[in-house]
Amino acid sequence: MKITVMTADEQIISLDVDPHESVENVKALLEVETSVPLQQQQLLYNGKEMKNIDKLSALGVKDEDLVMMVSTVASSASTNNLSFNPDGSAVNPGAFQQHLRSESNVMAQLFQTDPELAQAVLGNDLNRLQDLLRERHRQRSDVRRQQEEELALLYADPFDVEAQKKIEAAIRQKGIDENWAAAIEHNPEAFARVVMLYVDMEVNGVPLKAFVDSGAQSTIISKSCAERLGLLRLLDQRYKGIAQGVGQSEILGRIHVAPIKIGNIFYPCSFTVLDSPNMEFLFGLDMLHLKDNVLRVGGGEVSVPFLQEKDIPSRFLDEERLSKQASSSGTPVTSGATDRSNNPPIGGQSSGGSRVDTTQGPDFEAKVSKLIELGFGRDAVIQALKLFDGNEEQAAGFLFG
What we know:
Elements: E1 2-7, E2 12-16, H1 23-34, E3 41-45, E4 48-49, E5 66-71, H2 76-81, H3 93-101, H4 104-113, H5 115-122, H6 126-154, H7 161-186, E6 198-203, E7 206-212, E8 220-222, H8 223-228, E9 241-245, E10 247-262, E11 265-274, E12 281-283, E13 294-297, E14 302-305, H9 314-317, H10 319-329, E15 333-335, H11 362-372, H12 378-387, H13 392-399
Parallel strand pairs: 1-5, 7-12, 8-11, 9-15
Antiparallel strand pairs: 1-2, 3-4, 3-5, 6-7, 6-10, 8-12, 9-10, 10-11, 13-14
C-alpha cells in the first residue's frame, strides 16, 4: 500500500510499504529519503505517536493515509503546528491548512480521495475544517472497530448463542448494505427529495395554492381557510364525523357546492371541512380527471387499469367496520381522508304493503357508481336509493341536502 509522509519542513514523501511493516522499518526508509537519523524521527498518525515496535495494520494505517514526521530535535512549536489532537482535529488548524495548501501533490490527491475535505482546506472556515477532520477520525475509528468485531466473531465459540446472534446480525447487515449500494448504483433517484404537488387555483374568487392528493377521496378544506374564503356560512353540520387515516381529524361538516377556477375554467366543487390547522386546502380524487382510468408507470410505457369497486377486496374498503362504528357510537367515521360522513338522519320510513326490490341488478349498481362519483359514500347512496325506490334524481337531490 502507499502512504504519504509529511515532514516538519513541509516535504512530502510517498512510500510503498507492506501493511504489516513495523514503524521502525518505515523510519529506516525515511532516513534514506530525508537524511534524518532513525533515532531522531517521531511519526504521528491521527495525532498519536507511532511506536517502533507497532505494525502499521495494528495502528489502523490504510492505503493513501497521511503520516506526520517530526524531528525530536526540532522546536516544539513546529511539532505542535502539524500535530493532531486525540479527536483527530489539528492542534494548529491555520498552520495545518497553510501547509496543505502549499503542497500541490497532496491537494491533488485530496481532491481525488476526499473532495469535501479538499474544499474545506481551500476555504476560509477553520471550524468546518476541524469538524471534517474529527468526522474522518470517527469514521476510521468505526471502520477499525467493526473490523475488530468481525475478526473476533470469526474465532467465536460456535456454541455461544450470543456470538451466533451477532454473526447473524452481521450477515443481515451486510445484505442491507449490499442492497443499499445496489440502489445507489442502479436507482439513485430513489434517494432524491420528492417535492409534493401544488397548483394555483381560485376558490370563490380567492386565489390559493392547493395541495394535490390523489389518495384522498374528497376535496378537503380547513375551517380557517373556509372562513377566509367566505364559505363557512354554508357549512352543513349534519355531515360531522371523524376522518381517520394517518392520525385523525374532526370533520366539522360539508360545503355542498362552491365555484373553483382552475386555469380559465370554473368548476363546481364540494368540500369536506376539517378542523385541521396544518392543512389548508387539499384537492382530492373526486375532482381529478384520470385519463383512460389507468395508472401509467415510468415514461408511460406500462399502464394498468384502476380496479372497479366490485373488484376491490372488502377488507380494503372496510365498510363493515366503519358501519359498525357509526351505528355503535352514533358518529359517522371516515377512513383515509375519505368522506363517508354524509349520512344525515332519515326521518321517514316507508310503510304499508310489499314493494318491488329495486336494489339488485346492474342498473342499480350503475346508479350507485354514478352517485359515488359525485363525492358521496356508498352507504349513503344505497340508503338514499332505497328510500326513493331507485329514483336516481330524487336520491341525488336528497344527498345534496
